[in-house]
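Page 42, continued from yesterday. The earlier attempt failed because a stray header line got pasted into the input along with the sequence. Redoing it now with the clean sequence only.
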Amino acid sequence: MTGGLVLGLDVGGSRLAGGLVEPSGEVLHAISVPTARRGPGRVLDNLLDVVQSLRCEADGRGRSVVGVGVGVPGVVDEVSGSIGPDIQNLPELRHIPLGRILAEQTGLRIAIDNDVNALLLGEWTFGQARGLRHVAMLAVGTGVGGALILNGELVRGASGYGGEVGHLCVELEGEACFCGSQGCVKTYAAGPDLARRARILFAHTPTPILGMLCGGASERIDAACVLTAAAQGDPVALAVTAKAAQALGAAVAALINLCNPELILLGGGVLEVGEILMRPIRRWAGFYAFGAAARATRIVRSAFTKESGVQGAAALFLTRASRPGAASWARAVPASR
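This time it went through. Structure tokens are written below.
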């Protein structure tokens, strides 16, 4: 694969990022556009536009593209490359055979999977998890996603749901979740849920710092307001983030007890606030997990951000390319345009 570039795509609910990535992980060129730039119902057209733009950029550099890696915020069928029903942020992609469509339209080999699976593979291929055999990740942003590598292999499970720790139940009679369950980690820790819980508390007990940040209008409270206010000691924001940290700590402990990993990486926009969440997450993980197992597990912030998704997608392709017999390949076919 010497000389060839990998085209990495990270498909998010609000932004679509693409990049030309060297096999070493270096991103030569990257672009980011609104996912709905082409209008409602045209995410796929927008995706193909980005692919075409990046291929033109590679041509201009005199470089070839050897394949495409794609991370999407949902579960992917390993055999067909189709996106499953549980893609909350981009419902128009439900049941779309994205792997086959991209292979037909580009003539390139395609590897497609859940975006957190791809992000963990990025850390495993290029980042802090290199050389390890047992690693887990939680990504906390609009939702709470997870991924697992055990014995040096990505764990996908029987139908692609392996690693979905954001939907572990941490409160038996807890709040309803979009997945149909209740008391999921996501309902306490995801960005929109932080905002929702803070709005409810603020409406009953207004606090000055959060009030200043939202201009006194509770409907204007978002996750960024909550995290900023928490960092400044606002009581409502601290109560909400404390509950989120406890839920995330319980999820980390479940990973420790179930999988006994060497390393757990915590990433996503919510955790960019830093130690105000990381410290209590580690503390709760130590409380809920077996002591010896917890002591054997490092819990660190991922160096990868959402913008690193193109590297993760490229790592997904490179991982699959090294195992050409894997069923999760979408085989290249002659381009139809």
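Notes: The longest strand covers residues 64-72.
Reminder to self: strip header lines before submitting.
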